[in-house]
Amino acid sequence: MARIELVDLAHAYKPNPAAPADYALRPMSMEWRDGGAYALLGPSGCGKTTLLNIISGLVKPSHGKVLFDGKDVTQLPTEARNIAQVFQFPVIYDTMTVHDNLAFPLRNRGWKESEVKKRVQQVAQMLELTGDLKLRASGLSVDAKQKISLGRGLVRPDVAAVLFDEPLTVIDPHLKWLLRRKLKEIHHELKLSLIYVTHDQVEALTFADQVVVMTQGEVVQTGSAQALFEEPEHTFVGYFIGNPGMNLLDCTLDDGGVRVAGQPLAVSAAARAALSGAQGKITVGVRPEFVECVKAGEGGEGGDHCLDATVTAVRNMGTHYLAEFQLGGATVAAKLRAIDAAPGDAVRLRFPPQRTLFYVNDKRVA
Ligand SMILES: Nc1ncnc2c1ncn2[C@@H]1O[C@H](COP(=O)(O)OP(=O)(O)OP(=O)(O)O)[C@@H](O)[C@H]1O
């Protein structure tokens, strides 16, 4: 297992990149700890695969270095990096048994047969493949074949890292749910360094200790599921994580507070200080889980943290109501335990100050 450092890393597929948009990966530096489980999460085209391929050695970066345990591996080919990889589609030997497929990476490195047997049993048990060990891979379903690919990726204990590129794409939804949790348990047990590319937030948040969120070739935040949910450092993280994502509303600075859709919204002293003199686009963010709905004319004690809005939709989701409101030209979503209003009604929406975040040019300031 290895600590992985990315130092001033950047990559452009086109020659002579000039503008930031010319880069598939914009300049970044970060360190991933030995034995950590990391997910690279972002929409299609944001640069996840480029970053994974730079770590595996399939792509040589145009700038910067990749270090494994302090050793510069940037110019080393994939086979000299001591990594395991699992791809979207199964990569296995159809004519071999499941056992021999799992044993292959170990036998290739000269492991004793008794040790091979022990390790294969351990990995097969974790992936619930024990009953299939004697079967020929060719007769198995695509799900089972992909489990073998996962097993082959996880079987060597001495790799620098195991890299996964959307490995659950072909897996049936129910098994996908089980495997996500399984991978987390396996990580806990085998303590391998895992790097996992996905565009699926549930997959990333279930599997990883740390999620690296990317957009347009840039890493905008690395954090735990809780940090990404509660304290998104960038408006993209607020929007991309959560279902629905964070409410993000344009606002203007006002004496002692801000204005949202022309209405005053009181802010904390800390937020006021952070916003004072801000230049550029100012955005207020509050997650649908934290928005409160009170009747028009009522604001209770927190009246100055309320804004007038109109209900546009209410859906009963079984565990909660998902309500939508019109606030000026913007839409605000709220997940509510109960709602005493119907579409067309005037209400007040309360943004609790401790759950209300502020962004200047998309970066969080308070
Ligand atoms: N070999 C290549 N040559 C030129 N441009 C490329 C190449 N590979 C990727 N790109 C471009 O680099 C950018 C990042 O692509 P990348 O595949 O890394 O993103 P991704 O987040 O993994 O997307 P996806 O989930 O769709 O694979 C995209 O604009 C893509 O078109």
Describe the 3D structure.
The protein is of the alpha+beta class. It folds into 2 domains: 4-238, P-loop containing nucleotide triphosphate hydrolases (Rossmann fold); 245-364, RNA polymerase II/Efflux pump adaptor protein, barrel-sandwich hybrid domain (OB fold (Dihydrolipoamide Acetyltransferase, E2P)), CATH 2.40.50. It is 25% helix and 32% strand. It contains 9 helices and 21 strands. It has helices spanning 48-56, 98-107, 113-126, 142-154, 173-190, 201-207, 225-230, 235-240, 269-275; strands at 4-11, 25-32, 37-41, 63-68, 71-72, 83-86, 161-165, 194-198, 210-215, 218-223, 247-254, 257-260, 263-266, 282-286, 292-295, 306-316, 321-327, 330-336, 346-350, 357-360, 363-364. The strands form 4 sheets. A 6-stranded mixed β-sheet has the order 6-7-8-3-9-10, with helices on both faces. The chain has a 6-stranded antiparallel β-sheet with strand order 13-12-11-14-20-21. It has a 5-stranded antiparallel β-sheet with strand order 15-19-16-17-18, with no helix packed on it. Strand 4 (63-68) and strand 5 form a beta hairpin. Helix 2 (98-107) crosses helix 3. The longest helix has 18 residues, at 173-190. The protein is globular, with a radius of gyration of 25 Å. Adenosine-5'-triphosphate is lined by residues 13, 24, 42, 44-50, 199. The site of adenosine-5'-triphosphate has 11 residues, from helix 1.
Q: So, CATH architecture of the largest domain?
A: 3-Layer(aba) Sandwich
Bulk shape: globular
Radius of gyration: 25 Å
What is the number of independent domains?
2
Distance between the termini: 38 Å
Give the number of DSSP strands. Answer: 21
Q: Overall pLDDT, averaged?
A: 94
Strand content: 25-35%
Bound molecules: adenosine-5'-triphosphate
* Poorly predicted residue ranges: none
Q: Supply the CATH class of the largest domain.
A: Alpha Beta
Order of helices and strands: EEEHEEEHHHEHEHEEHHEEEHEEEEEEEE
Sheet with most strands: strand arrangement: 6-7-8-3-9-10
Domain ABC transporter: 4-241
Keywords: ATP-binding, Cell membrane, Membrane, Nucleotide-binding, Transport
GO cellular component, one term: ATP-binding cassette (ABC) transporter complex, substrate-binding subunit-containing
Protein name: ATP-binding cassette domain-containing protein
